[in-house]
Design a protein that fits this description.
The chain is of the alpha+beta class. The protein has one domain. Helix content is about 20%, strand content about 40%. It is built from 2 helices and 4 strands; from the N terminus they run E-E-E-E-H-H. A 4-stranded antiparallel beta sheet has the order 1-2-3-4, with helices on one face. It is globular. About 20% of the residues are buried.
Length: about 100
Amino acid sequence: MSQVSFTMPEFPEPTPIDSARSWTAAYDSYDQRHDVSYYRVTIHAGDRDVGRIMAEVFMSPAGDDWRTPDFVPYLRAEIHQTAVRGTSNTEYRGYNNDGHR
């Protein structure tokens, strides 16, 4: 039986928050035990980066097959909610910041 590889999506194109701000997001890590993914979200105002936050996305609503057409829109919507708030929705600061999960 062959395994299908999967790469978590990233969101490098700015997504509008309002008329002045947007966000981009890079995949950070997946915590299998808690079934959550983490994204590093950058908030932009025009061409300037004005903030960085972490978005924690619970994966169970996405189901077991992350290759479905609904998966990327689900991730985008969850990250967008965090970006609109402008604050991290987790205390986790990222794999690159603390070196472990």
